[in-house]
Automatic annotation (TrEMBL), chain A:
Gene3D superfamilies recorded: Glutaconate Coenzyme A-transferase
Entry protein name: 3-oxoacid CoA-transferase subunit B
One matching Pfam family: CoA_trans
SUPFAM superfamilies reported in the protein's UniProt record: NagB/RpiA/CoA transferase-like
Keyword hit for RNA-binding: no
GO molecular function: CoA-transferase activity
InterPro entries: 3-oxoacid_CoA-transf_B, CoA_trans_fam_I, CoA_transf_AS, NagB/RpiA_transferase-like
PANTHER family: KETOACID-COENZYME A TRANSFERASE, SUCCINYL-COA:3-KETOACID COENZYME A TRANSFERASE SUBUNIT B-RELATED
Protein family membership: Belongs to the 3-oxoacid CoA-transferase subunit B family.
Keywords (A to Z) from UniProt: Transferase
Key word Signal present: no
Organism name: Neptunomonas qingdaonensis
Automatic annotation (TrEMBL), chain B:
SUPFAM superfamilies (UniProt xref): NagB/RpiA/CoA transferase-like
Membership in a protein family: Belongs to the 3-oxoacid CoA-transferase subunit A family.
PROSITE patterns: COA_TRANSF_1
Organism of provenance: Neptunomonas qingdaonensis
Superkingdom of the organism of origin: Bacteria
UniProtKB keywords: Transferase
Phylogenetic classification of the source organism: Bacteria, Pseudomonadati, Pseudomonadota, Gammaproteobacteria, Oceanospirillales
InterPro entries per the UniProt record, alphabetical: 3-oxoacid_CoA-transf_A, CoA_trans_fam_I, CoA_transf_BS, NagB/RpiA_transferase-like
Protein name: 3-oxoacid CoA-transferase subunit A
One Gene Ontology MF term: CoA-transferase activity
Amino acid sequence: MALTREQIAIRVARELQDGYYVNLGIGIPTLVANYVPEGMEVMLQSENGLLGMGPFPTEDQIDADMINAGKQTVTAATGASIFSSAESFAMIRGGHVDLTVLGAFEVDVEGNIASYMIPGKLIKGMGGAMDLVAGADNIIVTMTHASKHGESKLLTKCSLPLTGAGCIKKVLTDLAYLEIEDGAFILKERAPGISVEEIIAKTEGKLIVPDHVPEMVF
Amino acid sequence: MSGFDKVVHSYEEAMAGLEDGMTVIAGGFGLCGIPENLIAQMKKMGTKDLTIVSNNCGVDGFGLGILLEDRQVKKMVSSYVGENALFMEQLLAGELEVELTPQGTLAEKMRAGGAGIPAFFTATGYGTPVAEGKEVREFNGRNYIMEESVTGDFAIVKGWKADRYGNVIYRHTAQNFNPMAATAGKITVVEVEEIVEPGELDPSQIHTPGIYVDRLILGTFEKRIEQRTVRK
């Protein structure tokens, strides 16, 4: 079975380490916050200017001046700090964030990522995504492996306008966890019940398959 | 009052001198920390052909979105404009120009503009459509693109508290782009929720020192929420 949104978040959460500062993108990456292992402390960075994002507020706590990068009302966690957008992106661009998780439309074997624009269809803008992929060393891209029609999103070369060039090394799809190295995807793990053959069939870019590809366990 | 008193008493006075074709830098992220009354005054004035530098363009019917209703905006410089149907309509019809700018680059363009730095190099956007036509230089084995800073004829800013001298404090994440915007206007106008006497604010807690502020006005704010999310 392909991974559910929650399983993708659970798998990403296994990459967290105690003391990490983490930026979670909109959508599935946001769910990772629900699966921080017990006893581990991570601080969530929200690029509109909040380090130490807490849970959503209760009805009584709602404050229009307290939002996250998804424009949702949030609270500040204990020990949080709040600052300007310039300061926030100094943290991001300066490589101070330990892990960035974001979604994508396409990635390719060169580590390129396309995530912000579909010409003629979707022209909303890149927000902070270009800064995040340029500034972070440790990035996990979460995405579906192929479109509804079975077309691969893991490509030899991205077809959509790029968000960043040569910056992606780790990709978690609904079918597999892969790393990008020397111009190829390397299949590291597969989703429970998903065959290596299916992953090969749905990966357009060069794929290296080791002899043993462990199944993820949930 | 002293020569440092920045307080004006009407929104007409606050935005006096705004003319067709000017560039206006606006603070705010989504609808959070936006100078909503200064924007409303711009709508009232009917000024046209404006270039607006702001992370977003409000929503339909609120924030900067209201300036689209009478086609006052010629060009937007923003990182994300996805919350606004009228914006998309005018963009696709070719009536509105947009310069999509990465959020961190946008913040730094304002910061640099206000700090007298004409341009800077950043890795953000290298190898993407954002880099088109921009100078590329290599530093320590990595490629960077040159981004020019931005200044405005006006900067419009939303603060929380200020003293009469224009020393401003922002509240929570309503800070966002406001401190950089405040530095980057030839005329910087700040609207706040409370104005106090000089000496009442702790000098070490000031976000925007009064030197950047030309006009200060006391407002009342709707503070609309874009995504009301609560804990279950």
